[in-house]
Amino acid sequence: MGGSQDKPQLIIDGKRTDGRAPGELRPIKIEAGVVKNAKGSAYLEWGNNKVLAAVYGPKEAQPKHIADPNKAIIKCRYQMAPFSSLEEHNRSGPNRRAIEISKVTKEVFENVILLDDFPGCEIDVFVEVLQSDGGTRAAGITAAAVAVASSGIPMRDIPYAVSAGKAGDSILLDLNKLEDNYSDADMPVAIAPREGEILLLQMDGNLTKEQTIQALDMIKKAGETIVKIQRDALEAKYR
Amino acid sequence: MKVILPGDKISDSPVRTENAIVENGKTYATVMGMLDESRGAFIPLESIWYPREGDFAVGIIENSKNNVYTVALESPFRGLILPPPRPRFGGRGRFGDRGRPPMQEERREIMHIGDVVSVFVKEVKREADQVILILDRPKRLFGGKLMEVRSSKVPRIIGKDSTMLRQLEDGTRCTILVGLNGLIWLKGENVPLAQKAIWKIQEEAHVSGLTERITELLAGNDNGNSNNEGR
After folding, report:
1. Which of A153, B37, B64, B107 is the least crowded, having the fewest Cβ atoms under 10 Å away?
2. Would you call B126 and A119 a contact, using CB atoms and an 8 Å cutoff?
3. Mean pLDDT of the region A89-103
4. Which CATH number describes the domain made up of B145-219?
5. How far apart are the C-alpha atoms of A218 and A72, rounded to whole Å?
6. Are strands B78-81 and B131-141 parallel, antiparallel or unpaired?
7. How far is B7 from chain A (nearest CA, A)?
8. Interface confidence (ipTM) of the complex
């Protein structure tokens, strides 16, 4: 997102730079159970994004002082591989952005996993972005949700996440990297579909109330497709 | 049979069952499973072993300190084998009511770090900062092989009224101890065949006609691919 003078035109003749309609998702593919050593795992391809998620635990929380005597804690690590992107992520180790996304991902799962069942324990969620093209936090949450569901850790719902944004007067769904960098707004949202609970809502840029409602409607509609892909990935494990 | 995912409704009324929660008067699944609508039974495909009193488990002695053994059980919680209570003599005899010191030396000789033991869960105890499992009736298992399966598949490996387990034991001439935690100890004549059969049960637990396929495998007529190395 930015307001530079020489920003590219994101919508030409009603189509986006990659040929999609404003409300269209990129193609999504999910495979569950790809990491044999993990309790649960998933590999996701979302457009040009490639994300691997793995879940371990519940196990005794270490170090002891971080354990919660009443419930399990979630440790989440979102990480972009040094080779995942063209420029800014080319060093290994966590940076400010990775720490922030790890935190918001953790908070999404704190709201759906039944943590009270495992007092004093920890659950580890790892999200590794192998190739990135915008919207990786949403892709990471969607992949991690499938990984948690395939692990047998009890959860209330399988969340999904997707972003929406604005270019000129058009509301766009599922922004890619170019749109993410040059659009007027970017709003990633994670939702627990059963009750429609919003578990994550961040916004970069400005949207009016009407535009926000329109973007949320678009996200909820796209959620039906994403949920179906998540279900198919989990059911395919037992076909 | 219908595949159910976490968050799917399994009943319109509140039903108290494992691996489900009740919200707004309706029952929702919390893990992946199969719903048998005719019987109203929900069978989990993946789940975490949540220990209960009386559960049988197989574990490995992890530590020994002050006559207390710590047992690794592939469980979220730590398992402890405590020393036996001091026998008391009623305050009359030669020892008064001081009791006898615990038999430390003898017990240390019995179990060492790395030993495989079978235990029963005596108590799930909620301490100030964690949950610990008090274990009972420890029995050291000599020799044999230890393998790990997903704990949600254990009921299928044991079978209804232990039929599957008995079939495995008879077909391979092995002694098989199946812990509810997913650790299995095997010893006997044809351990590799028993392992192969158990892996096959784990991978195909949800596919009907499993008993026939296991019978064929044990009889040496297996054509299927069951070389999966467990989880």
Report:
1. B37
2. yes
3. 84
4. 3.30.1370.10
5. 34
6. parallel
7. 4
8. 0.90
